[in-house]
Structures are given as structure tokens and as C-alpha cells.
Amino acid sequence: MRRSVRKLHWRIIKKGEEGYVLTNLVKVTEDLLSVAIVLGLLLAFAKTSFPKSGRKIVIIGVLAGLAASIVMAVLNNTTNWMDTKTWNLRMLIIWIAAFVVFAVLSSKIKKEGKTIGKTVAWIAFAALTGAVIGNAFPAVWGYPYSFTTADVSVLSTEFLYKLIGYLFGLVLTFLTGLSVYQAGRRIKKPELNLCFWIMLIVEVIRRGTGLVQVLQAKRLIKSNHLVFTITKFANNQKELFIYIMIILAIVVFVLLMIASFKQNEPYRNPAEHRKIKAKWRSARRWAVTVLITAILGLLVITAVKAYDSREVELSPVEETTIENGNVYVTFEQVEDGHLHRFAYETEDGTQIRFIVIKKPNSSSYGIGLDACDICGETGYYEKDGQVVCKLCDVVMNISTIGFKGGCNPIVIDYSIENGQIVVPIDGLTEYEDIFKR
Predict the structure, then answer these.
(1) Residue 69: closest CA among 91, 40, 86
(2) Do residues 248 and 294 make contact, with C-beta atoms less than 8 angstroms apart?
């Protein structure tokens, strides 16, 4: 259990300046990119379809969603009053109920005058918009809570790099949502309505499967083949829904660009003509912003994510002398201050690895197994002068290598004789089971 919790924690917070920024940028973008596009289309639809009174109700829904998400983030990270699954269940139920009400009453929006049906449709739309925010944002607001650990304070450079990646993700997704909103409200109303309803249908599928997943996780419904298929789809197709929303954003870009070049508005004088030209120049700028932010978001969740999660190759095992029941490593092999990997191979082919690194500003050496009690035999690698665990990306304090504790290498017996490090084979073979696969 300890290993799995630690593994999850460090998947979000990788060590190394580059890792801190990229990991949090990817995480925020994955969580919010499709949400930003959904909100952009929702608000563009409200802007073009609702009168001022209807838009005010939608703004109230947005503010309520933001306030609820902030409160939930604080409660989730400081108390045990509300668990995430229960909160998400409530938000999903609100969203689906609001969608059903809005879908039934949406035809009344076009009618003249204020009616009860139209007002209820506005309220349902506001609840739908607020639930999108309430469902997606608590986890994102809570990320900074995980940036600090026992070894990391808010004044450290490590925290700063994590925060930079986090803020980059927020800025990118905010600009995506803003540009989709600005572009969406400038395209023709029938085209916006089509994009809007396609988006809602996709969201119904995504949130419907998500609701089944939460209900099954909370054991409110019994697991069967259908439930298993739905939850498996919800788990395996998360990126598919993001790609669909990116495609919708690009469709908005194309529609607005076509409209801007085909515009033929009448004008009575040169001043009006210049004003019309300026309006469509602004429209094209927003369209281009949609394309740029959508492509950047796509690159972040594909290329940047692949780069950030790339497999680390361990350095090869170096040659040693093995005789008299010992493994001998000369000082000359390890005096450069870099990480060196050695091994003893048993009769059944099991390779028992150990590492040696000269400690900074010292004549002593950090020596231990290429494995730890928490992460097993995944090994260590050197990056920017630091020793890092391959599995959880924890950075070792080189001065403490050779001592027990945390993710430090498992301590092994050794001695220093005649300019050599002598490691008894018996001391290595007692850990043979760790390296068997």
C-alpha cells in the first residue's frame, strides 16, 4: 500500500526542474482542455440565444460553480467532510438532470416574451454550466496542496517550478475557452447551434458513462457485464473525448474563417466599411487563436506527455573483478563523482546490481544495492548531478546513500582494501529474490 501511494504521488510531482514544469502542465491541460472548449461553446450559445435576463442567470450559475469548486477543493484537502467520489456523483447527477430539462424546454427559448418554460430552461442551462465547473475544477484547485511535502516548502525552487507548470496549464486552457467563446459567438447561429448540440451529445455520453463508473465504484449499482463494459469504456476513452472537443474547436475556427472571407455586409460610407473590416479582422484573430491554442493543447497531451513520461534507460553494468568470494571495484573506476553500476550474476542467471558514487567534497563513497525497500529493483539513474529513483523519481541525497531510510538504496556490506571497494558475494546473494523476475 505504501508503495502504491508513493508511486501515485510522484507520478504527479516528478523531480527535476524540467519534470516539475512539464508534468503539471500536462496534468492541468488533460483535465481542463475539453472542459474549456465545452464552457466556451456553452457561453457562446448563451450569448447568442439568451436575452440579458437569461445571461444573468447563466453568470450566476458560473459563479456558483466556481465558488462550489473552490469550497470543495479546500474541504477535500484539509478535512474529511466530503470525498471526491460523492462530490462527483452529485455534480454528474445535477448535470444530467439539467441537460434533460434543458433539452425538453430548449424549443421555448425562441418564443417571444418571458414564460415559465423559458425561465426554467435558463435555470437548467445555468445548472448545467455550473455543474461542468463544479465537477472539473476541485481537483485542479487542489494541485498546489500536493506541491509541498515534508522536504518541500512554498519558498523552494521545486515548488516554484511546479507552480509554473500548473499556471501554464491554466493559462493555456483559459485562452482556449475564451477564444472558443469569442469565435463561437461570431459564427452563424445555425452553425453554432449544430456545434453546441454535438458537444452536448458527446458530453452526455462522457458524463453518462462517468456516472455509471462512480455508481459502480460506490457500489450503488451491481456490477455486471454491461456495467463492466461501460466503466471500461469510460476508463479507456478519456483522451478520445478530448480529441473530439479539439476537433469541434477546429471546426469553429474553419467556420469563422470562411465567414470572415465571405462577408458582404452593406455599408453607407467609408467609415462604416472600415468598421466592418475591423470587425472581421478581429474575428479572424480569434479564429486563429482558437487554432493555435487547440494545437498547443493537442501537442501538450500527446508529444509533451510522451516526452515527459519517456522511459529512462539505466546505464550499463561495468566490468569488475570477481575472486575469492568478493566483487572488487577500484577507486579509479568511481573517482569521477558520477554514478557507476556493477553486478554479480548468480548461477541461475540472476543479476544482482549495486551502485557506487563518490560523495561530493568527500573521500568516501555512497554504496548500496541498485534497489530499495519501497520501489524494488527498478534502479537508479543520474540526472543533472543527482541520483534519482527510476520508479518514483525521488532524488537521493548523495550524502545519505549507504544509510537506511526512505527510497535510499538498500545498504550492503563492503570494506575498503588497498585502493579497492570489496563487496562480499554472500552479502549480495541474500538479496537475490529482489532481482528475480
Answers:
(1) 91
(2) no
Which pTM does this prediction carry? Answer: 0.72
Q: Which residues of 417-431 are buried (b: 16+ CB within 10 A; e: fewer)?
A: eeebbbbbbebbeeb
DSSP letter assigned to residue 350: -
Look-up: residue for cell 539505466? 314
How would you list the strands of the sheet with 340-345, edge to edge? 340-345, 351-358, 365-369
Walk across the sheet containing 386-389 and list its strands. Answer: 380-383, 386-389, 395-396
Least-confidence region, from 2-16, 291-305, 411-425: 2-16
Adjacent-strand bridge partners of 368: 355
β-strand partners of 354: 342, 369
Give the separation between CA 429 and CA 346, rounded to whole angstroms: 8
Contact 176, 288 (CB under 8 A): no
| Helix, strand, or coil (residue 366) | strand
Q: What are phi and psi of 417, to 5 degrees?
A: -145, 120
